[in-house]
């Protein structure tokens, strides 16, 4: 569904992404983990088209994205949730969700989609008419994920969805993301919390200083003692 080949991203003198190749398939969660500054968010922005790579090829469902802007990439079914993505706090939960469905074109289609996805988010269903400002941190994060789903994405790139959440809300957020697989979406999950991400992912890749240093099934990486010591501990390296 999403293919990356030898992607390089530069920020001035910094080569933030240094030759990354990855494949992401429909119906799977691929966890991308690694220390602060590894280049994970830079890679996500390259995929979404908000920061152009200096080299490499990115394909979505076979189509080369290099000549497309962020809006065109989104219209082809790729949704990117950047770190700390804001909600419209004064709008109701319902209107935040409907705003995520605008790419579907017609309001009735967004409303149909809302009815489809709400059962996965019971806490939001109970608060549809309340302003997003009334939600807890965890509920806001679920709303961000639910709003992204409204667009019925083929590929969802989610950057640090558990940032700032306690362990319980973080776990629920990741469980919710894992549940999105059954919709057929391909999910690239970027997480600081490697242990939690590997617990729900199908496959994983470890990124350090712009490069993928390990990749494989999530289970294999979970059980790799060298990784557990070297890269997977929170903030183990900068
Ligand atoms: N807009 C920018 N301008 C200049 N340098 C940047 C910019 N964004 C990122 N960088 C640099 O690129 C490198 C990779 O940063 P990036 O944000 O992609 O890492 P990350 O893996 O997402 O880290 P974190 O886990 O802290 O979010 C770092 O050295 C960072 O300082
Ligand atoms: Mg980041």
Biggest β-sheet, characterized?
6 strands, mixed
Distinct bound molecules: adenosine-5'-triphosphate, magnesium ion
- CATH class descriptor name of the domain at 2-88 and 155-230: Alpha Beta
Low-confidence stretches: 234-238
- Content of β-strand: 25-35%
Order of helices and strands: EEEHEEHEHHHHEHEHEEHH
The CATH superfamily name of the domain at 2-88 and 155-230 is P-loop containing nucleotide triphosphate hydrolases
Form type: globular
CATH architecture field of the domain at 2-88 and 155-230 = 3-Layer(aba) Sandwich
What is the overall pLDDT average?
Answer: 89
Number of strands: 10
Terminal residue distance: 31 Å
Q: Please work out how many helical segments DSSP would assign.
A: 10
**Computed CA radius of gyration, to the nearest angstrom:** 17 Å
* Helix-residue proportion: 25-40%
Structural class by sheet pairing and helices: alpha/beta
CATH topology of the domain at 2-88 and 155-230: Rossmann fold
Tell me the strand order in the biggest sheet: 6-7-8-3-9-10
List the helices and strands and how they pair.
Blueprint: E1 2-11, E2 14-24, E3 29-33, H1 40-48, E4 55-60, E5 63-64, H2 70-75, E6 78-81, H3 93-100, H4 107-117, H5 122-125, H6 137-149, E7 155-159, H7 167-179, E8 186-191, H8 194-200, E9 203-208, E10 211-217, H9 218-222, H10 225-230
Parallel strand pairs: 3-8, 3-9, 6-7, 7-8
Antiparallel strand pairs: 1-2, 1-4, 4-5, 9-10
Helix pairs in contact: 3-4, 3-6, 6-7
């Amino acid at each position: 569904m999403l293919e990356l080949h030898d992607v390089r991203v530069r920020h001035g003198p910094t080569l933030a992404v240094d030759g990354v190749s990855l494949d992401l398939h429909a119906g799977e969660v691929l966890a991308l983990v690694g220390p602060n500054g590894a280049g994970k968010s830079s890679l996500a922005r390259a995929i979404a088209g908000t920061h152009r790579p200096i080299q490499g090829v990115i394909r979505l469902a076979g189509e080369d994205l290099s000549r497309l802007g962020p809006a065109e990439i989104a219209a082809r079914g790729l949704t990117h949730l950047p770190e700390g993505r804001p909600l419209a706090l004064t709008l109701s939960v319902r209107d935040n969700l409907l705003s995520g469905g605008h790419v579907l074109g017609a309001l009735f289609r967004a409303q149909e989609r809302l009815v489809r996805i709400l059962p996965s988010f019971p806490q939001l269903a109970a608060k549809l008419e309340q302003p997003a400002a009334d939600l807890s941190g965890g509920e806001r994060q679920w709303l961000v994920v639910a709003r992204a789903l409204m667009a019925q994405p083929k590929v969802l790139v989610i950057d640090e969805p558990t940032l700032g959440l306690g362990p319980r809300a973080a776990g629920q957020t990741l469980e919710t993301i894992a549940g999105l697989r059954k919709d057929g979406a391909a999910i690239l999950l970027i997480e600081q919390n490697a242990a939690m991400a590997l617990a729900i992912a199908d496959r994983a890749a470890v990124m350090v200083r712009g490069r993928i240093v390990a990749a494989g099934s999530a289970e294999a990486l979970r059980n790799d003692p060298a990784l557990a010591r070297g890269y997977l501990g929170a903030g183990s390296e900068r």
